[in-house]
Amino acid sequence: MLSGQNVSEVLKSMPANTIRRIEVITDPGARYDAEGIGGIINIITARNVFQGYQGSVGANVSTFGGYGANTFITAKTGKLGLTGNLGYNRNMRPWSTNENTNKNLINEVFHREINDGKSKNHGHFISGRLEASYDIDTLNLLSLGVNLWNGMSENESKRWTEMFDDRDELQFGYRRDGEGGYDYGSTGINLDYQRSTRKKDENFTFSYRYSNSPDGNSSRSFVREMTEGVPPYVRLNQKFNNNARTTEHTGQIDYINPITPAHTIETGLKYILRLNVSSVQQEEIGANGNWQPIQPRPYTNEFEHTNNIYAAYAGYAYRSQKIGVRVGIRAEGTVQNVKFKLDESKNFKPDNYFNPVPSVTFSYQLKPAQQIRVGYNMRIFRPSIWYLNPYVDDTNPYNISYGNPGLDPERSHGVNINYSLFTSKFTLNASANYTYVNNSIQNYMYIKPEDPDVRRSTYDNIGSNHRAGLFLTAGWTPNRTLRFNLNGGVNYADMRSAELDISNSGFTGNSNISAQITLPKDFRINANAMIYSGFIMLQGSQNGYYFYNFSVNKDFFERKMTVSLSCSNPFNKYLKFTYFISDERTFSTKSISHQQMREARISVSYRFGNLTESIRRVQRSITNDDVLGGGDGGGAGM
User: Considering the entire predicted model, what is its pTM?
Assistant: First the structure.
């Protein structure tokens, strides 16, 4: 299951023939707990494979200079089943331009800062999974999985900075060249043991999971040119390495019992030991021309945040010919601890918390192909190291940023109503939902009156967030040669902060429209268009944009080989992105960037092998996605 950041990278790296179907769970029950977002992407891979082997290989290359390759294989021999896939992508993004204007409304001398420059980035992403299932006997199953999902993004920038006073007179200027990068992803091991009974579908599952998720970054910057008047605290040459990561150990027990064909109960226990750590090294070039440590800040170096999360859940499901009911309750508690190893006087224990988390879903079968569903659930979002890390980034001493180790988890309440229709030519899934968070984690910026030179950016539980949305997914296949798909939605968001005495509200939305034409000789033509309205934040907003893609596919060798040629944004070389944030009293920021988006790509894939017997898999396993990370949400379940 997936949610949160970099989901698109995972999907790109998975060969299409490994995916059986993709489910979007909009109202998960008690098993999917308080940990998580309002929706979970459940990717069902090719599990009913057969005795023998089957696989595929593929490769792609783009006009930006990027390239990639992937392979998939599954095999069954006797009681042992093996499934593995491995993908690698090298991403290249050419130079983009950026102009950023920061206004300090309470500072007459350092009143307006302009940063004008360009940047480019490249990186690599590798993903893979190896899963082994062993049928001990008809009632006992053992499964071991190793997951790899890691990436590195590197960037290079050249930027000219100018500072003006409130009379628009230049105070100073300098050019700074920089390079840096950041890590993301996760590496994990899952071990599952399933004990079934003679009763159909009744089983116990005992699971353990270990994961390590890097979230660090590093940079080096050099001042190449400068005018007179540059303050001495603008460091000319500096570098830092922020080694941040999250490790988890999770144990879980699940039990499911279909009492009768109409009644099912389930229950379980779960424990997570989560450790968020960061270690920062900062250096500058001293008077002797050598790199030397910057005086460490005890509040930012050698940081450790520990979560001990324990939970139990119980659920009941009823299903008749037309009516379905699912109710559940989850009890969840967390014990926290924060340490600063270089200054133990800063250590503290955040408030521990315990929550009963209810969920309920009611469904009614209107007709054999029509269903309506109504649900309520509560969710908990825990801040990741991205939000907690107290490291102070002061590369630009007039605009600094840092995390907040004292953040509390968000608590969200959501109501969802869903209607679905399935026919031979038409599918429709429409939903409306409402969510409310009264202690929303918000990124905000501020200037202290006693220190008017510096604008600070951090996070805190200072907002209430109301969101109401309508979402639609539809597919139409009028004949064998045509297929149309539409999915999208619109949201109305209302965000308020009594602490900052500010609010923001408005509509946001997105849509994705695609069409496919199947031609003779195994040719297919695809067109896809995506429209984004932008988004709003507590203190600002970003503009909307659009993206479109065309591709031509051809199958060879009895459809074992597929060659695809695609082009993105062929009629628009650049896309413009505008970002604005302000508190209307002390500061405002406006950023405009132009990014190259016109790209062509060719890919080739080949499928081989034959399968003759199915591989059994455990029905329950561990998924931890309760973490809010990188400005994006997570959602999790047992």
Answer: 0.85
